Fold this protein.
Amino acid sequence: MEAARILNQLGIVYRSQEYFVESYFAHVAALDELTSVIEQDDFSVQFQKARTRYLMGKRKKDSAARVAIDQIVDPSNFLPRPLAVRGIGRRDYFGDFDRRSHHLNVAIELLSDLRQQSQENTSCEFLIGCCFRESGDTDRALETFQNLVEKHPDNPHFRFELIETFRTVGDPRQDRRGERFPEEDEVKNQLLALEHADWLVQRFPNAPRYGLAPMHVLHRLGHTFQMPQ
């Protein structure tokens, strides 16, 4: 169990350095560790499985970074060090929507079962909200994060993720349903996000991540007016 947590954290570190192949297979190795745990029905094991699937299904922001699929054999061969990315037969593991959707759907299914076991577990609620957003289901993502903020108004992390979700609503690059919101609704959503962003800045003036939130919302608001109707 602890090995799986460490491997997932390793995958996050690899991802932050744009070693996306290593990141993906660190999570694959974490999933292998979890399937070998005897107490498969344990809440913490199931939650860690869901978290692993979520990490495997996350979007990769850098669309230029791709991997050579024919060079991937055994994750243990390259987990300790970066894998050279070259050759042909390239495929983007974090950009393959079918592959990502599968992982996210499995995570949502696992978390839905866990929610029934512990309806007040904020970790489950938070993670399933992230899964909804990654899968393009912005309606359920917004509902989840808004409920979390209402129940825990002083938690900055929940509020920040609500802002991030507001920023994706109506954006065809993020909202995979392909729907376009009327401009009035888009502006309303971004203004709500701006209110939450201002709250974060006032409460946590020395947190760089929160300090940038208003700028990101304003940038998205400007993009809304530039998009064709």
Q: What stands out?
A: The first helix runs from residue 2 to 16. Strands lie at 67-68, 90-91. The domain at 136-229 is CATH 1.25.40 (Serine Threonine Protein Phosphatase 5, Tetratricopeptide repeat).
